[in-house]
Design a protein that fits this description.
62% helix; mainly alpha; DnaJ_homolog_subfam-C_membr-28; 2 domains; DUF1992 domain-containing protein; 9 helices
Length: 206
C-alpha cells in the first residue's frame, strides 16, 4: 500500500472512531471533516488551530483525532490492551514501583518492597548454597534486616515481611537438597553391562 493509501486508511479508521464516539450516523461526513483538518494541520511543534466556536475540550479532541489519523498510536506497547493497574486501589508509590520494574533496578527503593522481593526469592538463594553454615548466615542476616526495617523512623510503607524460622528453614533446605540429589541420581543413565558384571565380581570377592 502506498503512503497516500496508508494515510487514507488511517483517516478512515479515525473517522469510524470519531463517529462511534460522538454517535454520528454518517461516517462519510466525519471522514471529509478529518481530511479537511489533515490538510490544514499546523507546522510541527504548533498547536492545532481552534475553529470558531470550539472550546478547549474540542481542541483536545482535534489533536487526538489527528494523531489517530497519522497512526501515532498504532505502535504503542499497550495498543489494544488494558492499561496495567487501571481500576485498582490508588497507590501513592505506583511510579516508584513501575520504574523499578521497567528498568529492572535492584537495591533501590523502600526497604519494605526490597525485603518483600528478597523474601519471594529467598528459597532459591538458599538452594544455591553448599553448607548449612552459609544457609544460617543468610537467614540470620535476613531476619536482622527485617527487624531493623520495622524500627524505621523515616516513614514509608509498612514492613509486612515475616521473620524466617532459621531451624525450620535449614531443615527444609536439607530436604530440598536431598530431593534434588535423588532426582539427579534417577536421571543418570544405567551403567553399561560390563560395569555391572564387574560390580558383581567385586561384591563376591568382598
Amino acid at each position: 500500500m502506498s503512503r497516500s493509501g496508508e494515510q487514507q486508511e488511517r483517516l478512515r479508521k479515525a473517522a469510524q472512531y470519531r463517529a462511534a464516539r460522538d454517535g454520528a450516523t454518517d461516517a462519510a461526513d466525519v471522514l471529509a471533516e478529518l481530511q479537511r483538518q489533515n490538510d490544514e494541520r499546523p507546522a510541527e511543534g504548533e498547536m492545532a488551530p481552534l475553529r470558531p466556536g470550539e472550546d478547549g475540550a474540542e481542541r483536545a479532541r482535534l489533536i487526538v483525532d489527528r494523531a489517530v489519523a497519522r497512526g501515532d498510536f498504532d505502535t504503542l506497547a499497550l495498543a489494544g490492551k488494558p492499561i496495567p493497574g487501571l481500576g485498582e486501589a490508588h497507590d501513592p508509590d505506583w511510579w516508584v514501583k513501575g520504574l523499578i520494574q521497567r528498568e529492572n533496578i535492584t537495591g533501590l527503593g523502600p526497604k519494605a518492597y526490597l525485603l518483600r522481593a528478597e523474601d519471594a526469592e529467598l528459597e532459591g538463594r538458599l538452594d544455591r548454597q553448599y553448607t548449612e553454615a552459609q544457609v544460617r548466615a543468610i537467614l540470620e542476616d535476613f531476619n536482622y534486616r527485617v527487624i531493623d526495617a520495622r524500627r524505621q523512623l523515616l516513614g514509608g510503607p509498612p514492613v509486612i515481611t515475616k521473620l524466617r524460622d532459621v531451624d525450620a528453614e535449614v531443615e527444609d533446605w536439607r530436604q530440598r537438597r536431598e530431593a534434588a540429589r535423588r532426582r539427579a541420581a534417577d536421571a543418570m543413565p544405567p551403567a553399561p553391562p560390563r560395569f555391572r558384571l564387574l560390580r558383581r565380581v567385586l561384591r563376591r570377592r568382598s
